[in-house]
Amino acid sequence: MIKKRCICGSGKISEKCCGRFIKMGLNARTPEQLMRSRYSAYAMGGYGHYLLQTWFPATAQGLTEKELSERGRDWVKLEIIDRSQKGNEGMVEFNAYYRDEKGELNIMHEKSVFQRSQGRWYYVGAEIAYD
To answer: Which of 75, 117, 118, 119 could form a disulfide with 43 if both were Cys (CB 3.0 to 4.6 A apart)?
Structure first.
């Protein structure tokens, strides 16, 4: 059986990378691990439950598992620009590359904010720009 590399671009086997969080229910130990796993969940589609579960409850108002499960873009590459963690707060800045309906490559630049609560990291929100 051929082991698949993780879609987040880490170079690791999926089950030892984002798959352990998305499919096996383990908790990310760092904001970057959580961000990579959330990117992977969006890129694969069908993991709205995981995305909702890792979203800080106060900022997830009105989101549904169904809408988060939809694969809205053809995500092709993730590039980490910066990361930081201080206590229970974290930030990851990245570029996520995707192909539009014409097949052209585009970039979504995001600075994500994370909060740790009761030992678990959550996505709080982000500043997002499209190129």
So the answer is: 75
Q: What is the CATH number of the domain that holds 22?
A: 3.10.450.50
Asked if the structure places residue 24 within a domain, the reply is yes
Is residue 37 in a domain?
A: yes
Is the predicted pLDDT of residue 2 greater than 80, yes or no?
A: no
Q: Which domain holds residue 102?
A: 14-130
pTM over 0.85? The answer is: yes
Residue 78 located in a structural domain: yes
Q: Dihedral through CA 43, CA 47, CA 52, CA 53, nearest 10? A: -120
Compute the distance between CA of residue 115 and CA of residue 120 in angstroms, rounded to an integer: 8
Paired tokens of 40? 């992977």
- The span from the CA of 124 to the CA of 65, in Å, is 17
Tell me the pLDDT tens digit for each residue of 33-43. 999 999 999 99
